[in-house]
Amino acid sequence: MKKLAIAVAAVALLAGACSANDEASTSPSSGGPAVPSPAGSSATGTLTVFAAASLTESFNELGKEFEAAHPGVTVKFDYEGSSALVQKLDNGAKADVFASADQANMDKAVQGGVIDGQPTVFATNKLAIAVAKGNPKGIKTFADLNKAGLTVVVCAQQVPCGSATKKVEDNTHVTLKPASEETDVKQVLAKVQSGDADAGLVYVTDATSAADKVDKVDFPESSGAINNYPIAVVKDAPQAALAKEFNDFVLGAQGKAELTKIGFGPAQ
Amino acid sequence: MARPPHSRVPLVLWIPAVVALALVVLPVVGLLVRSDVARFPSLLISESSLAALKLSLITALLSTVACVILGVPLAVVLARSRVRGTRLLRSIVLLPLVLPPVVGGLALLYLLGRKGFLGILINALTGQQVPFTTAAVVIAQTFVAMPFLVVSLEGALRGSGDRYEQVASTLGARPWTVFRRVTLPLLLPALGSGVVLSFARALGEFGATITFAGSLEGVTRTLPLEVYTQAEVDVDSAVALALLLIVVAIVVIAVARPRSFEGGFR
C-alpha cells in the first residue's frame, strides 16, 4: 500500500509538472494589457532570449542593462549551442529573440519559418588559441599547434567553431591532429583549463572571458574565418514589442560597447 | 523453485503500470515516427557511424569484462564480509548510479587527467596520458556500469543467504573452495542479468565519456557521442543512429535473456 501511495504521488507530481509547464508557456501571451513605462518601453513582463553559448557573458550584462532601462521587465536567457536552440524553436519552444553564433543556423531557423522579419548581423567573432597560463609550451603561431608532443583540442566540424577551424586549416594548409573534437567551444576551453590539453582553438571572446585561467594567443590567419552573429525576433513571440526593443538594444551603442569589451568584432 | 499458482494482479496496479510502460515506449515511438526510414541505409553506413558502432561494441565489451573481474569480488565482499563499514561501502559503490555522468567524468579527469595525482603517476611511469584514449572510454564506461552488476549480484547473494557456505565450511572446505564450489554457482543466474545490464549501460554511456575521454572518430567517439555530434547538423542522421543504438541494446537484452535474466531479480 505504501508503495502504491508513492507511485500515485509520483504520477501526481508528473502531472503537476506538466500542467505547470503549460501555464508557464501560455501565460506570457495572455499577459495583461501593455502598460507604458516611464522609460518609454511599451510592455512589461518576461522576455525570453535564446542565445548561442558563446554570448553568455556579454548577454548577461546586456540583460541587466536592458532590465535597468525597462522597469517591470525580466530578461531570461537560454544559452546553448545554436543548433540546439534552432531545434527547440522548430519544436515549438516559446521565445522572443534568437541570437545565433553563425549564419547557417539562423538560415535554418528562417527556413523553418520560426523567424519574424530579417535577421541582422550584430557582431563577429574569430578564433584564438587558448593555452595554459604563461604559455609553457611556447605556442606563438597557428602552425605551432602541429609541434610534436602537443595535445591539441578543437571543435568538431559540425559546430560553428569547428567549421571556422576547418577553414583556417584549409587556408593555411596546416592539418591539425587533434586529440579530441568537442561539440562545444566551452568544452575545449575546459580541457585547456584542466591542463589535459596543451592548446585549444576557441573564440577570441571565450579566451578573453576566461583570461584569469588561460592565456590567449592571437594568430593572423584567424581573420580568414570570421563568424557572423545574427539576431532576430522570433515569429509569434509572446512579447513581440519587447523583443523588437531588445533586438535594437543589442544592435545599438550600448550593445556594441558590451560586445566589444569581450572581444567581439563589429558587424561587417 | 516452483512458482505459486497464478495470482491475479490487483486492478488498481494496472493503471500506473500502463502509464509507466507508456513513459518508456512512447518516446521511442516518437523517435520512429520522426525518422526518415527511406534514408536509413545511407545514414547508417556512413564511415563515421560504422566507426562509432565498432568502437561502441568493443569498448562496451571490454568494460563489461572489467565490470565482471572487479565487480564479482566486490559484490561477494559486500554481501558476505563481516568487516565493519560495509554498509557505508555499499552506498559508496552505488554513487555512480546517482551522480550526473558529467560529474563522474570530471571526477575521473581530476584523478587520471594530466594534473590528477594518479594521472601524474601513470605519466611518470609509462609516459602515457589517459584522457583522449580508448582506454579512457573503457574506464568511464566501467565506472558508470559496474554498480549495475554489483547491485544485481549482491541482491542475489543476500537473497540466497549463506547457509550453504556455512555448511561447506563446517565440512572443512577452505574459503577459496567455498567461493568456487558454492558461492559462484549461486551467483550465476544473477551474473547473467548483471552482465547484460552493465553492457547495456556501457553502450549508452555519454556524459562521463565526453567529459573525460573527449570525442574523436575511431578513438573515443562512441555511438552516443556520434549521435550528439550529428544532431548539431543533421537531425535525421542523429535519429537514425539513435534508433540503431536502441536496436543494438534490445538485441543485447534479448539474446542474453534466457532464464538468467528473469532469474536475476526474484
From TrEMBL, chain A:
Transmembrane segments: none
Record keywords: Metal-binding, Molybdenum, Signal
Pfam families in UniProt: SBP_bac_11 (PF13531)
Residues at which molybdate binds: 54, 82, 185, 203
Signal peptide span: 1-20
UniProt cross-references to SMART domains, sorted A to Z: PBPb
Keyword Chloroplast: no
InterPro entries in alphabetical order: ModA, ModA/WtpA, Solute-binding_3/MltF_N
UniProt keyword Metal-binding, yes or no: yes
Gene3D superfamilies in the record: Periplasmic binding protein-like II (3.40.190.10)
Any single GO BP term: molybdate ion transport
PROSITE patterns documented for this protein: PROKAR_LIPOPROTEIN (PS51257)
UniProt xrefs under CDD domains: PBP2_ModA_like_1
MF (Gene Ontology): metal ion binding; molybdate ion binding
Span of domain Solute-binding protein family 3/N-terminal: 46-266
Protein family according to the UniProt entry: Belongs to the bacterial solute-binding protein ModA family.
Protein name: Molybdate ABC transporter substrate-binding protein
Gene: modA
UniProtKB/TrEMBL annotation, chain B:
Principal localisation: membrane
GO molecular function term, any single one: molybdate ion transmembrane transporter activity
Record's keyword terms, sorted: Cell membrane, Membrane, Molybdenum, Transmembrane, Transmembrane helix, Transport
Gene Ontology CC entries for this record: plasma membrane
Gene3D superfamilies cross-referenced by the UniProt entry: MetI-like (1.10.3720.10)
InterPro entries: MetI-like, MetI-like_sf, ModB_ABC, NifC_ABC_porter
Residue ranges constituting the ABC transmembrane type-1 domain according to the UniProt record: 53-256
Lineage top rank: taxon: Bacteria
Record carries keyword Oxidoreductase: no
Cellular localisation: Cell membrane
CDD domains hit by this protein: TM_PBP2
Lipid bilayer topology: Multi-pass membrane protein
Membrane-crossing segments per the record: 12-33, 53-79, 91-112, 132-157, 178-200, 238-256
Function of the molecule: Part of the binding-protein-dependent transport system for molybdenum; probably responsible for the translocation of the substrate across the membrane.
Family: Belongs to the binding-protein-dependent transport system permease family. CysTW subfamily.
The protein's name: Molybdenum transport system permease
